[in-house]
Amino acid sequence: MAYENILVDRKGAVGIVTLNRPKALNALCAALIEELGEALTDLEGDDAIRCIVITGSEKAFAAGADIKEMKDKSYADVLDEDFITGDWEVVTRCRKPTIAAVAGFALGGGCEIAMMCDMILAAETAKFGQPEIKLGTIPGSGGTQRLTRSVGKSLAMYLCLTGDMIDAETALRAGLVAKVLPAEGFLDAVMKVADAVAGHSLPVLRVCKEAVNVAYETTLAEGVRFERRVFHGTFALEDRTEGMEAFAAKRKPDFKHR
Ligand code: DAK
Fold first, then answer.
1. In angstroms, rounded to a whole number, what is the distance separating the alpha carbons of residues 89 and 50?
2. How confident is the model at residue 132 (pLDDT cuts 50, 70, 90)?
3. 130 CB within 6 A, ligand 1
4. Is 90 exceeded by the pLDDT of residue 1?
5. Active-site option among 62, 65, 114, 168
6. Does pLDDT of 251 surpass 90?
7. Does the annotation count 223 as an active-site position?
């Protein structure tokens, strides 16, 4: 499928979506977000894919929603059309593991899309921020919510109220990103992580991701109960039998994703 604002690639069991509007620092215009949704839906439906990487350029993951596209909208417009809401949430509906590979700017909606992914891997050059306050508005796609759950109130308030950016090391210390990787060879290093994820059993990846996400939505007691049920449930899978038999036989497991 030919896209205008993104590139889609498949390497082994990993699908890679590259945001590709370099002249606008990958500003997230409606057409780009629609294409991202289509590409993710396509990769979700592809049995050969077990992990999805979303990335941008060396200079920008994405510098936010397209300000030029939204600047003339009125309150009635955004309310009436439920402005850009549906398309933006496709990332959150992926059932396969998603990795945001961030180099350069991840601002506003760019930071929000990264946070919708299951983990963020950052190049040393990454800069994260929620600068909407400088435009006279506030984050609109989870920036006040996912960021706060991820880094805590004080840093989330700092980012949302000042509009300042933080660098990759600060984001790492705060728990926003899982790893900081050298800028040189960044995507190769990301692919090592993605390949490791994609090497596991797909049904187990799906339920594992679901269990971690439950931690955001419920009490500890309910979450632990959910985890235990799902853990027991993995014993119904051929891959769980294979994983443990392979360990005991000192060989690599041959998962069939069943
Ligand atoms: N929108 C449109 N164009 C952008 C852009 C953006 N967000 N960011 C950069 N560009 C464009 C610039 O206008 C410039 O275009 P030309 O002038 O060359 O035509 C080109 O990209 C290069 O940018 P700069 O010349 O500014 O490059 P610099 O290196 O000097 O500066 C910068 C880089 C990232 C610091 C700067 O471009 C900047 O401050 N950009 C804006 C960052 C920002 O404010 N982002 C937040 C946008 S608001 C929602 C979902 C999402 C959202 C809301 C609701 N719902 C589901 C309801 C999200 C909102 C936002 O993200």
1. 20
2. very high
3. no
4. no
5. 65
6. yes
7. no
Q: Is 210 a catalytic residue?
A: no
**DSSP per-residue letters across 93-131:** G--S-EEEEE-SEEETHHHHHHHHSSEEEEETT-EEE-G
pLDDT at 85: 76
Distance CA 117, CA 94 (A): 9
The candidate with the shortest Cα–Cα distance to 98, out of 146, 42, 132, 53, is 53
| Residue closest by Cα to atom 4 of ligand 1 | 24
**How many secondary structure helices (H) and strands (E) does the chain include?**
12, 10
| Alpha-helical runs (H) found in 10-167 | 30-44, 67-70, 75-80, 85-88, 109-116, 146-151, 153-162
Which residue has the CA at smallest separation from atom 15 of ligand 1? 24
CA 24/CA 35 separation, integer angstroms: 16
Token pair listed for 179:
């790893």
Average of per-residue pLDDT values in the chain: 96
Q: Are 10 and 48 in contact (CB under 8 A)?
A: yes
Identity of residue 106: A
Task: Judge whether 58 counts as a catalytic residue.
Answer: no
Q: What is the pLDDT of residue 160?
A: 98
Residue 227 is a catalytic residue: no
CA of 237 to the centre of ligand 1 (A): 46
Which of the residues 39, 100, 123, 132 is marked catalytic? 132
Q: Is-above-0.90 flag for pTM?
A: yes
Spatial CA neighbour of 210 closest among 229, 235, 238, 236: 229
